[in-house]
Structures are given as structure tokens and as C-alpha cells.
């Protein structure tokens, strides 16, 4: 490592230490949700079992439009369904039912009731599941055509080559596209990194920094640095610190454009994960030392 790169790491370390005394910086994700399943009327992105089911149907039926609407929403907009027989998908909606008032209410309403009257939740309120049906927007006549926003940029060849070499040397798989479900993560069980399609990312830096973050997680695999990356809260938070710091080190070592805005975003991510620790300086220094080992390992394997 040359002196200029050493200065970059030192600058990052100093920035991270300073961030412990700064106000919370908002973190910005470096990619958009792309073709995540959602309702365009309410702008709701589906979660949980609804998300899983819609992703399955989306792939099975080869839909290319991730929007889903109820029949009433379609009718209210003046649109019509075409060739929709048997195409409806049943989704779940969980609500809280007020036995006394005989109506469905919001959680915030329950909190207000508890504060004002002190009544027991179990006696008066209960969870209730209702099913509703949605149809894919490709079956709707009259709706505006769906256009995927694709960001165009040139990927840094050196960074991409290092990632490829690291994967080849360690048998790590990277899957890009629908299977990521609009998220970036490392699956230890399958030893695989998942990321959204590259054209959803803001630019080349965000694309590579995200993959490098997940590659940092992958070094915890038993066949590599054999690090504890369980889902226990403190250990998970520490692992996120290691990966984010490691990713920033790698971006700096690769000579990527890591200006103040990008540094602030790294700092914001670190602030969010270190907030639960009492001994913040000690935890941060421990994460920095681990990040050095991680980046050296990836750079060695990535040639």
C-alpha cells in the first residue's frame, strides 16, 4: 500500500472517530427500489408473506410490471381488467379489531385508549386477518405504461476486476437481479452475495461499495477468516461496522472518488449501528482493526 492510500485510510478513520461526537447524519441508500412489488395508488411496497407470494407469481407468470392493484382501485381510476380470469392474487392484511366499538383501528389508537382509560388490550382488542385480491398492472387497460428507471454509468474496471478475482479465489457467488428482492445482503448458508441490478444504483461508486460491503461480510465464512457473524444484536451490529469500514477502505485503496458526501454517508451508516453500544470509542477501534484484516484479505485474494 502506498503512502497516498495510507493517508486515505487515516482520513476515513479520523472521520469515523469524529462522527461519535456529531449529531446523527441521515443515511442514504445508494440504489432505488427498482421493480419491487408495490401498489401505485397507495405507493405501498409489499412486505413479509405478501412480498414473497408476489415475487413468486411475478417470476412464474413472467410479468414485467411490478405494480399490483385491487379491482376497486382499477374501477375507481376508470381502467378495466383484461384477460384476468384466474389471475387474481390473494394477499393478507392484518388489523386490530375493537370488540367494544366493533370496528378496525390503528395501533396508535390503542395507545391513546390505554393512556386515557387504562383498559387491558387483550380484553378489548384482538388481531384480525382479512384477505384482499390484487391484479398485476399488465392486465389493466388504461393505466400508464411502466418504465423502469435505469441509471447508466461506467463501472470502474480495476474495482470490478478485484471483486471478480476475489470471488474466483474463494468460490464466492454473486447473484445480481430479481433474486435480491431489491436488497443487498450476504447469505452465509449459501455463501452468496445478492445485490439489485446494477442499473438501479446511483453510480459506479455506490454499486462497487455495496458489493464490497457484502464481500466484507463474506470473509466471516469458516473457510475464510472464520468470524462470528450470527444474528445476535451486538455481534450483528459490530459485523455491520466492520463491513462498512472495510468497504470504505477498499474504495479508498482502489482510488475511487470518495469525497465528503460519500464519507458522510459511510459515517451515517456507522453512527446508526454503533448507537446501541456504551463504549463507542472502544467498539469503533475494534471494528477498525477487524476491517483492516478484512480488507487485506480481500485485496490479497483479489490480487
- Give the beta-strand count: 11
Number of helices: 10
Shape: globular
Average residue-wise pLDDT: 87
Question: Strand fraction band?
Answer: 15-25%
Which class of secondary structure composition applies to the elements?
alpha+beta
What's the order of the H and E elements? HEEHEHEEEHHEEHEEEHHHH
Low-confidence stretches: 115-121
Instruction: Output the strand order for the largest sheet.
Output: 3-7-5-6
Span of the ends, CA to CA: 12 Å
Biggest β-sheet: count, sense, barrel?
4 strands, antiparallel
Share of helical residues: 40-55%
For the CA atoms, what is the radius of gyration? 23 Å
Outline the structure in words.
By secondary structure, the chain is of the alpha+beta class. Helices cover 46% and strands 15% of the residues. It contains 10 helices and 11 strands. It has helices at residues 3-19, 48-60, 71-76, 107-117, 121-124, 157-170, 204-218, 233-253, 260-274, 280-301; strands at residues 38-39, 44-45, 68-69, 80-81, 89-98, 103-105, 125-136, 140-141, 173-176, 185-187, 192-195. The strands form 4 sheets. The chain has a 4-stranded antiparallel sheet. A 3-stranded mixed sheet has the order 9-11-10, covered by helices on one side. Strands 1-2 form a two-stranded antiparallel ribbon. A hairpin with a 4-residue loop joins strand 5 (89-98) and strand 6 (103-105). The chain starts with a helix and ends with a helix.
